[in-house]
Amino acid sequence: MTTFADIQAAAVARNGTLADLKKKLPKAKSAKALKAISDDRYLSAMSLRVFSAGLKHSMVQGKWPAFEEVFFGFEPHRVRAMPDEALEALMGETRIIRHWGKIKSVRANAAAICRIAEESGSFGAWLAAWPPERTVELWDELQKRFTQLGGNSGPYFLRMVGKDSFTASPYVIRALNHWGVYDGSGKGKRERAKIQEAFNDLAAESKLPLCQISMTLAQSIE
Asked: Whole-model pTM?
């Protein structure tokens, strides 16, 4: 039976040394650190992920100061209060990406963050409360409560803000299949639950955060 040590050894062989591999591994923030992030920074990161989907990320990041300006620093209450006319006016703002569905998503997601903050004190507190072993449930919740966070956008947003989680990228799915840890396509709720179980087992063995297990898997195959 394949162990995480086998997977890690293959990843090390492809990267040179264990130290070289570790340089590529993402870092997970603690619950305290997640709670310390203000809601406007979460909305900014969420919006950056939404606007980056399908586009060159460096191009979107280059425009981000203008996004910060037109969306009031992504302060959720101010964005939630933007009238339709203000959003429509942004379609004429040449400094940002003028995608109507994504522009509308910023206001909708601001409202969702405000609701969660009312329930849990802050979005960071809500996010920190989700245990890593229920990552796929968090993906479902993000897709249900927010706009344009379906597919891989939710998992990539979590990686951006430092919430410990894995991704179900094609590389990760291929590696899980290659090592016999999981057999499937990763499509559908039932398959995602099986992937979660596989990651939970690897985490129990390795004592590493899910984000580092995920990257190690991706680095373990061609």
From this structure: 0.94
